[in-house]
Amino acid sequence: MSGKGVPDEVAIDGSGLRVAVVAARWHTEVTDALVAGATRGLDAASVADRYLCRVPGAFELAVVAGELARSGYDAVVALGVVVRGGTPHFEYVCSAATDGLNRIAMETGVPVGFGLLTCDTTEQALDRAGLPGSSEDKGREAAMAAVETALVLRAIRRAGSAPGQHGESHASADGR
Q1: Which residues make Cβ contacts (< 8 Å) with residue 156, sequence separation at least 6?
Q2: Is the pLDDT reported for residue 61 higher than 50?
Q3: What is the mean pLDDT of the chain?
């Protein structure tokens, strides 16, 4: 079971950040729950300026995440699910989506919260979707990770633009 080693959640203040959420439409029960979890995470982080859009599937997440990142959002949260079937399609889609989302983050410097579930079964996806009875809430985790990373990047960029000022963000103090 995943979920082992999850870091303790820290209180973060994302007020003033602009965060976009892009979610796939495949496996509606799971993706709707992931969106709800991301919304809970953004609420907890006090992010008021947010945008939600839907794309057909996981493969399309990267191109839209890229456009959002280049459009001035401080963070993007990508949500979806791919469930293994009987063909190599699973591996192709998972690899392309993961590589694409990582490339967007690296090329733009905008964090992309990775909320793409890659599961062997629908039951595994449901257990990670943040539904009542689920063991994990990957939508919330992805949103919180994106916001926290955006705040770390903001602190680094501000420190770099103000010579002689050295400070730690709450996140860098413990190595995250």
Answers
A1: 169
A2: yes
A3: 89
Active-site choice (27, 89, 166, 170):
89
| Catalytic (active site) residue 89 | yes
Q: What is the pLDDT of residues 5-23, one digit of tens each?
A: 777 778 899 999 999 999 9
> In the chain, what are the domain boundaries?
18-164
CB 112 within 8 A of CB 100: no
Superfamily of domain 18-164: Lumazine/riboflavin synthase (3.40.50.960)
23: helix, coil or strand?
strand
Q: What is the pLDDT of residue 87?
A: 81
The region, left, alpha or beta by phi > 0 then psi within -120 to 50, assigned to residue 72 is left
- Token readout for 62 is 């990267």
Rounded to 10 deg, the angle between the 138-161 and 28-44 helix axes is 40
Residue type, 53: C
